[in-house]
Fold this protein.
Amino acid sequence: MAEKVNLTFSYPEFICARYTSYTYFLTLFIMRSVNKVILMGHLAVDPEVRQLQNGHALTSFKVATNRDWRSSDGERKEATDYHKIVAWRKLGEACAQYLKKGSAVYMEGRLMNHQYTDKKGIDRFGTEIVADKVNFISYKKNADAEEINLVEVKE
């Protein structure tokens, strides 16, 4: 269980020549960075599983998200963005087992950037989302009702 900690201090005690402002102090010592991605969309391709030498599963797939807007002349525009997702170990195995192209998902994870050299010797850069939690969404609609099921799988 997380323990709540209240820090109380007076402004002049912590300001010295090195820390010229209270905001700078807070930025250095108290504020933390956040690397969190939340996506809800549909799989653009079937998941692809690789078994690594250490026995862990690495599953990768793309999630498509849609966005729409109105242009300056009032015309409705629409675009689809594709996001590369990787899921490790048990989460990756579950994604490979239960997801397929077109499956609806809600997922949370973090951005990871990487650099590699391709076969032609050119340096390439890539960004992918490492999944921490994936919710499988299924829904059925009939004449009487609409049924939505949600299954959550965590790393």
